[in-house]
Amino acid sequence: MFGCLQFLRFGWLEVVSCLFPGFLFAGLAISKYVHLPIARYDALLIYCLGLTLLFWVVRLETWREVAVIFGFHLVGLGLELFKVRVGSWQYPGDAVTKVAGVPLFAGFMYAAVGSYLCQAWRRFDLRVSNYRPVLTTIFAVLIYANFFTHQWIPDLRIPIALGLLVVLRRTWVFFTVGVRRYRMPLALSFALIGFFLWIAENFGTFLDAWNYPDQVSVWRLVHPAKFGAWSLLVSMSFVLVASVKSLEGRLYHRGGTATVETSPQHGNANQADR
User: What are the transmembrane regions (predicted)?
Assistant: First the structure.
């Protein structure tokens, strides 16, 4: 019974951590089926900017978190500009805010990942142990660069991914659900987030936010290989969010207990662990 309750608590925390992605998909759905007075992508850009401002005003996100989310927005937008240019996918429809075939709102689909990480960090009280920021950042940059360079040189994502796994082999992420604290390998969390991002990508293409070449005439499931690509790209978002959490003193876990009580009567002991 306790296990079922913990699972429900975990699911609820995940849902509320996905507020920005949830509102983003609501906007995609509404803009697809409701006639708008302006171009769809222009409306989505205004909508996403408004969401970001709202999250900051109601203190769902700090100004540092908003800054890092915009940072990932720019990282994603750069990737989008390149991928559309080489024909990897396309954005149907015209818009005033469309540059080189890419609507500026597109970066918010990446920003939504950063928002999720910021929200999850707070709601799950996330901390990491044995995190190696310099090496992790180097591999995250290599992963991002490979999305560009594999157009001209062999795709190196597998050796880069293996290198990242070696770097993260002893890195754990600690999180709280209810009255208990758990841990899992950080690399596993990247894979899990990547899987759900692949599912989200399927919904996004179904709502015609963008299309792969084989989806132009009829919608098809996004190739499962994209799951791996998203898992790797999560590392870049994590590095950006971790840099903010390091400044806030909320990055590293203190203590080696895998699962600990965090109820009030044990509060002092738990604070020592953190």
Answer: 12-32, 38-58, 65-82, 102-121, 133-153, 159-179, 186-207, 227-244
